[in-house]
């Protein structure tokens, strides 16, 4: 494990830095020696087949699971041993692949809990956030009765409620139609433009390659390639041409 | 040496029986996802049936056992599965917990109806006795050795054979393997050609058969002088403790847990220092299994406990508005004033007690309904409040009330602290253990509360009145209940209330917005326990005393059940639940003796309803569509008004 802050970039540390993280479930390596960086103001993509370890990596970053080795830091602060809620107050937020909403509260109240937790309880703030993600008309609806797509957007609004510096999004487009996906793409770009670091896990490869500045490809718990979208596109094309589609490769991986 | 050996033998024999109970629990839990709180009660019903068939109907005892284990228990299991548990497959932890607690209350009711009349002694003779009554036994290791009764050997052998056979069945047999798979993913197993219903039925049948076998085996050991319900249901706790050691999953570890527990209990009995008094010694022995359970829950790492049930989307909440709350409170007090003028002495007392229990019910709405923290020791907090009141400044001062609330709240916070990482079922078990410990070690302990004598508790002084009459007391309780109801409504609409619901709905997301559940949990436990303590002060004031009988853990379960049956997330439900719990025992005295246990009966009917409507009677759709309740929970649209106003403002 590299000592805290030993890197050369102490002054302008990455918003999120994951260094040499490994994690095992029994005998299966869910993550082995994964490193990645997310910079403020950019969208970083994370793609890979089901079971490649993407969600496990998010769980490690957010502290819901403890890694066997490696470290996680936020804006230069080592948070590897910090509790989830401490990381959140350091500016980390996420959405979940399997929705984690406060299902007995209305959409507005879901966002309000986050606003209140970060001490920003202006009455209009909840509505503004819901408007921004495009579900303002559902404000009063209990989230348990929302369709998946809208529920995902409510979750995104809640993630934004703490005004995060680093935002992890786990398949935000699933359940959205094409038009909604496109507008979500614009939203993510504008969120990044506000100076947030966004890490995007998404199966919609076209969208990832369109809006991300850097893309990591994860397979069997390892980063198998990293680069700007153009490189990845070329790489993917090669993979698909010679090896079949990438998502077929990881069928035996562990549950992420 | 011989003392050590004989306690070892007793420990192993009882451990074996606990082991049978516990593996039944584990098998049912792993095939159905339901933790059967009634496991011990099934054993109890079996033990009574055994007495009935053998001693009363004069069946050969082997035939009786075969009938009970292979006919009665499976039939009972199938009925229970069909009527109660099929409906709640995949339900929330809280709901399946309520239904299985309900089954416990029902079976206790059944036992009370059939086997409670005091004019019969239900003595069960030992197995392997000669015609002159001597128990057959064999002597080991000479004069310094130990006497083994044949029945003790038989119990251990039967348990070992059953354990090994069950292990082989689950590991090898096709049905057994499918049963292990079904809990992980019932749909997947269904796709693979197995029938999940069949699996669940098999799980229940096996669990009930093991419990019945345990009941038949233990009957002669505990029933030499007569079987009683209380003595037999205590078995249940022992089974729970062993199952937790086995992490609700591992059968060999469950057996190890059961044996350790049996040995610990008997060594405690055998080796307590001679100088402590007999009363305290009895308490310590009684407390061993419960402390064992409590420690096991705290020590065994959370991550390695089996997942306790699945999450399901519950119907949307109905938040009471300030206006509805105020109207409900005024209505409640007005009704109390009218009743105080009209009702007779019994009715007055019952309604006062019911409303006091209703306050305890409101504390459950806060803790269980909103925050999702299941507590099975609410009457313990109530008792602590009443006890503190009784011991302070003559037992009738306002300072005493204040102190009572503060002390109960502090105890609540203390319970919350060690159990912080426990959720759902495990938290419920820990609170059950706490309630049982407090009952044996404190309320029922003659060195704390002098033998059998209740602690006197007075009624709160009012200005310009020398004594508080029953009428005034009713109004006093009603005002307190109304204030508590207002308070609960206020909490639910507050920032803290949203936080409680959020914590209950998704702990992961709760942490992810930067909130720590530690503070929230401790606060909600303290608030809830304090409110229960207030209820206790008023309850005890009504009957001018508090005794161990008022705070038994089964009472905590019954109150929770009645509140859940009316609606655990509704204020009216809490008050109705309290009134129900107080009224049933009184109504019972007017009924024929054949309905000896109205509480069990009512709980039975209620639980069947609860299996169909998770939000209780007040949450049933035919009611919510037609009726407007005083505290407004059955009404949906008004609760959302504030948000709608906000939408309008923002637009």
Could you characterize the architecture of this molecule?
- The complex is a heterodimer of chains A (256) and B (651).
- In chain A, the strands form 2 sheets. A 6-stranded mixed sheet of chain A has the order 6-7-8-3-9-10, with helices on both faces. A 4-stranded antiparallel sheet of chain A has the order 2-1-4-5, with helices on one face.
- Chain A has 256 residues and is an alpha/beta fold.
- In chain A, helix 6 links the parallel strand 7 and strand 8.
- Chain A is 34% helix and 23% strand.
- Chain B is an all-alpha fold.
- In chain B, the strands form 2 sheets. A two-stranded antiparallel sheet of chain B has the order 1-2.
- Chains A and B meet through helix 2, helix 3, helix 4 and helix 5 of A and helix 18, helix 19 and helix 25 of B.
In short:
Chain A has 256 residues and is α/β, with parallel strands linked by helices.
Tags for this model:
heterodimer; A: alpha/beta; 34% helix; B: mainly alpha; two-stranded antiparallel sheet; two-stranded antiparallel ribbon; globular; disordered C terminus
Topology:
The complex is a heterodimer of chains A (256) and B (651).
Chain A: E1 16-25, E2 28-38, E3 43-47, H1 54-62, E4 69-74, E5 77-78, H2 84-89, E6 92-94, H3 107-117, H4 125-133, H5 148-160, E7 166-170, H6 178-193, E8 197-201, H7 205-211, E9 214-219, E10 222-227, H8 229-243
Parallel strand pairs in A: 3-8, 3-9, 6-7, 7-8
Antiparallel strand pairs in A: 1-2, 1-4, 4-5, 9-10
Chain B: H1 2-32, H2 39-56, H3 61-85, H4 93-115, E1 137-140, E2 146-149, H5 150-172, H6 174-182, H7 186-191, H8 196-222, H9 229-245, H10 251-271, H11 278-299, H12 322-342, H13 345-370, H14 378-391, H15 398-416, H16 424-443, E3 455-456, H17 470-493, H18 495-505, H19 507-512, H20 517-543, E4 545-546, H21 553-567, H22 571-588, H23 598-610, H24 621-624, H25 641-650
Antiparallel strand pairs in B: 1-2, 3-4
